[in-house]
Amino acid sequence: MVASEDLTNDPELKSALLTARRGTAFFGRKLKELSDDEFAAPSLLPGWTRAHVIAHVGYNARAIGRLIVWANTGVETPMYPSRQARNEEIDHGASLSPVELRDLYEQSANHLDVAWRNTPQDAWGHEVKAAQGYTAPATETVWWRTREVWIHAVDLDNGASFADMPSDVLERLLKDITGAWHKRGDDKDLRLEVLDSGGITQLGDAAAADPVIVTGTLSDITAWAAGRYTHGITSNRPDTPQAPRWI
Protein backbone atom coordinates (compact mmCIF):
# COMPACT_ATOMS: atom_id res chain seq x y z
CA MET A 1 0.00 0.00 0.00
CA VAL A 2 1.33 3.43 -0.96
CA ALA A 3 1.45 5.98 1.83
CA SER A 4 -0.52 9.18 1.17
CA GLU A 5 2.16 11.21 2.93
CA ASP A 6 5.71 10.70 4.14
CA LEU A 7 6.13 8.10 6.87
CA THR A 8 9.06 10.04 8.35
CA ASN A 9 8.27 12.36 11.24
CA ASP A 10 11.57 14.26 11.05
CA PRO A 11 10.78 17.95 10.29
CA GLU A 12 14.20 18.62 8.71
CA LEU A 13 13.84 15.63 6.41
CA LYS A 14 10.30 16.66 5.50
CA SER A 15 11.59 20.11 4.59
CA ALA A 16 14.40 18.59 2.50
CA LEU A 17 11.91 16.35 0.68
CA LEU A 18 9.76 19.39 -0.11
CA THR A 19 12.77 21.17 -1.64
CA ALA A 20 13.57 18.11 -3.75
CA ARG A 21 9.96 17.90 -4.93
CA ARG A 22 9.95 21.57 -5.85
CA GLY A 23 13.12 21.01 -7.86
CA THR A 24 11.52 18.04 -9.58
CA ALA A 25 8.50 20.17 -10.48
CA PHE A 26 10.78 22.96 -11.74
CA PHE A 27 12.73 20.58 -13.99
CA GLY A 28 9.40 19.20 -15.22
CA ARG A 29 8.19 22.68 -16.15
CA LYS A 30 11.36 23.48 -18.10
CA LEU A 31 11.08 20.12 -19.85
CA LYS A 32 7.47 20.79 -20.86
CA GLU A 33 8.54 24.13 -22.35
CA LEU A 34 10.76 22.32 -24.85
CA SER A 35 9.31 21.18 -28.15
CA ASP A 36 10.21 17.69 -29.32
CA ASP A 37 12.45 19.19 -32.01
CA GLU A 38 14.52 20.99 -29.35
CA PHE A 39 15.67 17.81 -27.59
CA ALA A 40 18.56 17.33 -30.02
CA ALA A 41 20.02 20.79 -29.40
CA PRO A 42 23.14 21.19 -27.24
CA SER A 43 22.77 21.55 -23.48
CA LEU A 44 25.10 23.56 -21.25
CA LEU A 45 27.13 20.39 -20.65
CA PRO A 46 29.92 19.81 -23.21
CA GLY A 47 29.15 16.88 -25.48
CA TRP A 48 25.60 16.43 -24.19
CA THR A 49 22.38 17.30 -25.95
CA ARG A 50 19.26 18.19 -24.01
CA ALA A 51 18.19 14.58 -24.57
CA HIS A 52 21.29 13.42 -22.68
CA VAL A 53 20.38 15.68 -19.74
CA ILE A 54 16.78 14.45 -19.66
CA ALA A 55 17.89 10.81 -19.85
CA HIS A 56 20.45 11.34 -17.09
CA VAL A 57 17.90 12.95 -14.75
CA GLY A 58 15.42 10.15 -15.42
CA TYR A 59 17.92 7.37 -14.85
CA ASN A 60 19.27 9.17 -11.78
CA ALA A 61 15.84 8.90 -10.17
CA ARG A 62 15.90 5.15 -10.80
CA ALA A 63 19.43 4.93 -9.39
CA ILE A 64 18.49 6.78 -6.20
CA GLY A 65 15.42 4.57 -5.98
CA ARG A 66 17.75 1.57 -5.85
CA LEU A 67 19.46 3.13 -2.84
CA ILE A 68 16.09 3.51 -1.13
CA VAL A 69 15.48 -0.19 -1.73
CA TRP A 70 18.86 -0.83 -0.08
CA ALA A 71 17.92 1.33 2.91
CA ASN A 72 14.58 -0.42 3.34
CA THR A 73 15.69 -4.02 2.82
CA GLY A 74 19.34 -4.11 3.85
CA VAL A 75 20.16 -5.76 0.51
CA GLU A 76 23.02 -3.89 -1.20
CA THR A 77 21.63 -2.33 -4.35
CA PRO A 78 24.17 0.04 -5.97
CA MET A 79 23.16 3.06 -7.99
CA TYR A 80 24.96 1.73 -11.08
CA PRO A 81 26.89 -1.47 -11.87
CA SER A 82 29.83 0.69 -13.01
CA ARG A 83 30.69 4.13 -14.32
CA GLN A 84 30.78 2.70 -17.83
CA ALA A 85 27.32 1.18 -17.42
CA ARG A 86 26.00 4.56 -16.25
CA ASN A 87 27.45 6.34 -19.27
CA GLU A 88 26.14 3.71 -21.68
CA GLU A 89 22.69 3.98 -20.13
CA ILE A 90 22.65 7.76 -20.63
CA ASP A 91 23.80 7.41 -24.25
CA HIS A 92 21.04 4.89 -24.86
CA GLY A 93 18.50 7.15 -23.19
CA ALA A 94 19.53 10.07 -25.37
CA SER A 95 18.59 8.01 -28.43
CA LEU A 96 15.00 7.53 -27.24
CA SER A 97 12.16 9.46 -28.82
CA PRO A 98 11.00 12.65 -27.10
CA VAL A 99 7.79 10.89 -26.03
CA GLU A 100 9.80 8.09 -24.44
CA LEU A 101 12.12 10.55 -22.71
CA ARG A 102 9.20 12.51 -21.28
CA ASP A 103 7.69 9.27 -19.98
CA LEU A 104 11.04 8.22 -18.52
CA TYR A 105 11.31 11.45 -16.59
CA GLU A 106 7.74 11.44 -15.28
CA GLN A 107 7.60 7.77 -14.33
CA SER A 108 11.02 7.64 -12.68
CA ALA A 109 10.34 10.80 -10.67
CA ASN A 110 6.98 9.45 -9.50
CA HIS A 111 8.44 6.06 -8.53
CA LEU A 112 11.19 7.72 -6.50
CA ASP A 113 8.70 9.94 -4.72
CA VAL A 114 6.57 6.92 -3.80
CA ALA A 115 9.67 5.13 -2.49
CA TRP A 116 10.56 8.14 -0.34
CA ARG A 117 7.02 8.41 1.03
CA ASN A 118 6.99 4.72 1.97
CA THR A 119 10.35 4.75 3.76
CA PRO A 120 9.84 4.54 7.54
CA GLN A 121 11.76 6.75 9.94
CA ASP A 122 14.29 4.13 11.06
CA ALA A 123 15.28 3.18 7.48
CA TRP A 124 16.40 6.72 6.67
CA GLY A 125 19.42 6.25 8.92
CA HIS A 126 20.65 3.14 7.10
CA GLU A 127 23.91 3.53 5.19
CA VAL A 128 23.96 3.50 1.38
CA LYS A 129 26.73 4.21 -1.11
CA ALA A 130 26.97 7.18 -3.46
CA ALA A 131 28.07 6.75 -7.07
CA GLN A 132 31.42 8.26 -6.06
CA GLY A 133 31.98 5.37 -3.63
CA TYR A 134 31.50 6.97 -0.21
CA THR A 135 28.79 5.88 2.24
CA ALA A 136 26.14 8.08 3.83
CA PRO A 137 22.76 7.69 5.53
CA ALA A 138 19.79 7.35 3.19
CA THR A 139 18.69 10.86 4.14
CA GLU A 140 21.50 12.13 1.88
CA THR A 141 19.74 10.71 -1.17
CA VAL A 142 17.30 13.60 -0.88
CA TRP A 143 20.11 16.12 -1.26
CA TRP A 144 21.69 14.15 -4.10
CA ARG A 145 18.41 14.30 -6.01
CA THR A 146 17.81 17.94 -5.11
CA ARG A 147 21.19 18.85 -6.58
CA GLU A 148 20.48 16.92 -9.78
CA VAL A 149 17.08 18.39 -10.61
CA TRP A 150 17.85 22.03 -9.83
CA ILE A 151 21.23 22.11 -11.63
CA HIS A 152 20.16 20.11 -14.66
CA ALA A 153 17.08 22.29 -15.14
CA VAL A 154 19.62 25.03 -15.87
CA ASP A 155 21.59 22.68 -18.14
CA LEU A 156 18.56 22.33 -20.41
CA ASP A 157 19.51 25.86 -21.52
CA ASN A 158 15.99 27.15 -22.09
CA GLY A 159 15.78 30.00 -19.64
CA ALA A 160 16.44 28.60 -16.18
CA SER A 161 19.32 29.99 -14.13
CA PHE A 162 20.89 29.50 -10.73
CA ALA A 163 18.90 32.54 -9.60
CA ASP A 164 15.81 30.31 -9.78
CA MET A 165 17.19 28.04 -7.04
CA PRO A 166 16.25 28.49 -3.38
CA SER A 167 18.97 30.23 -1.36
CA ASP A 168 19.44 27.24 0.95
CA VAL A 169 20.10 25.00 -2.07
CA LEU A 170 22.64 27.48 -3.41
CA GLU A 171 24.41 27.78 -0.05
CA ARG A 172 24.71 24.04 0.44
CA LEU A 173 25.77 23.53 -3.16
CA LEU A 174 28.48 26.17 -2.89
CA LYS A 175 29.76 24.65 0.34
CA ASP A 176 29.81 21.19 -1.28
CA ILE A 177 31.80 22.47 -4.24
CA THR A 178 34.32 24.47 -2.23
CA GLY A 179 34.64 21.57 0.22
CA ALA A 180 35.60 19.28 -2.67
CA TRP A 181 38.19 21.84 -3.81
CA HIS A 182 39.63 22.08 -0.31
CA LYS A 183 40.02 18.30 0.03
CA ARG A 184 42.05 18.24 -3.17
CA GLY A 185 43.98 21.42 -2.36
CA ASP A 186 42.48 23.17 -5.37
CA ASP A 187 41.42 26.25 -3.41
CA LYS A 188 44.97 27.41 -2.62
CA ASP A 189 45.24 31.19 -3.10
CA LEU A 190 41.58 31.37 -4.12
CA ARG A 191 38.93 33.24 -2.17
CA LEU A 192 35.23 33.65 -2.96
CA GLU A 193 33.30 36.66 -1.70
CA VAL A 194 29.51 36.42 -1.78
CA LEU A 195 27.71 39.76 -1.98
CA ASP A 196 24.10 39.04 -1.09
CA SER A 197 23.97 35.96 1.17
CA GLY A 198 22.60 36.11 4.66
CA GLY A 199 24.72 33.09 5.58
CA ILE A 200 27.83 32.73 3.41
CA THR A 201 30.02 35.79 2.93
CA GLN A 202 33.46 34.29 2.24
CA LEU A 203 34.87 30.89 1.32
CA GLY A 204 38.23 29.55 0.20
CA ASP A 205 41.82 30.15 1.26
CA ALA A 206 41.54 32.57 4.18
CA ALA A 207 45.28 32.32 4.90
CA ALA A 208 46.48 33.41 1.45
CA ALA A 209 48.57 36.59 1.44
CA ASP A 210 47.57 37.63 -2.09
CA PRO A 211 44.61 35.49 -3.12
CA VAL A 212 42.71 35.54 -6.37
CA ILE A 213 39.38 36.97 -5.20
CA VAL A 214 36.23 36.05 -7.10
CA THR A 215 33.17 38.13 -6.27
CA GLY A 216 29.51 37.80 -7.17
CA THR A 217 25.99 37.21 -5.94
CA LEU A 218 25.24 33.86 -4.35
CA SER A 219 23.55 32.56 -7.49
CA ASP A 220 26.20 33.81 -9.91
CA ILE A 221 29.17 32.68 -7.86
CA THR A 222 27.61 29.24 -7.38
CA ALA A 223 27.01 28.96 -11.12
CA TRP A 224 30.65 29.91 -11.73
CA ALA A 225 31.89 27.42 -9.11
CA ALA A 226 29.77 24.68 -10.71
CA GLY A 227 31.34 25.45 -14.09
CA ARG A 228 28.15 26.69 -15.74
CA TYR A 229 28.59 30.36 -16.59
CA THR A 230 30.59 33.44 -15.60
CA HIS A 231 28.28 36.42 -16.07
CA GLY A 232 27.95 38.59 -12.99
CA ILE A 233 31.38 37.51 -11.73
CA THR A 234 34.23 39.94 -11.06
CA SER A 235 37.79 39.32 -9.93
CA ASN A 236 40.76 41.24 -8.57
CA ARG A 237 42.72 39.89 -11.54
CA PRO A 238 42.49 41.17 -15.13
CA ASP A 239 40.69 38.02 -16.29
CA THR A 240 38.07 36.00 -14.44
CA PRO A 241 39.72 32.69 -13.53
CA GLN A 242 38.23 29.35 -14.43
CA ALA A 243 36.75 27.53 -11.45
CA PRO A 244 38.55 24.40 -10.28
CA ARG A 245 37.00 21.06 -11.16
CA TRP A 246 34.07 20.16 -8.91
CA ILE A 247 33.42 16.42 -9.34
What would you say this structure looks like, in words?
The chain has helices spanning about 10-35, 50-75, 85-95, 100-115, 140-155, 165-185, 220-225, and strands at about 125-130, 135, 190-195, 200-205, 210-215, 235. The protein is an alpha+beta fold and about 250 residues long. A 4-stranded mixed sheet has the order 4-3-5-6. The protein is globular.
Order of helices and strands: HHHHEEHHEEEHE
- The overall pLDDT average reads 95
Rg estimate, integer Å: 19 Å
Strand elements, count: 6
Which secondary-structure class do the elements indicate?
alpha+beta
CATH class of the largest domain, named Mainly Alpha
In the CATH hierarchy, the architecture of the largest domain is Up-down Bundle
**What is the fourth-level CATH superfamily of the largest domain?**
dinb family like domain
Kindly identify the CATH topology of the largest domain.
Four Helix Bundle (Hemerythrin (Met), subunit A)
> How helical, in percent, are the residues?
40-55%
The portion of residues forming beta strands comes to 5-15%
Number of continuous helical runs: 7
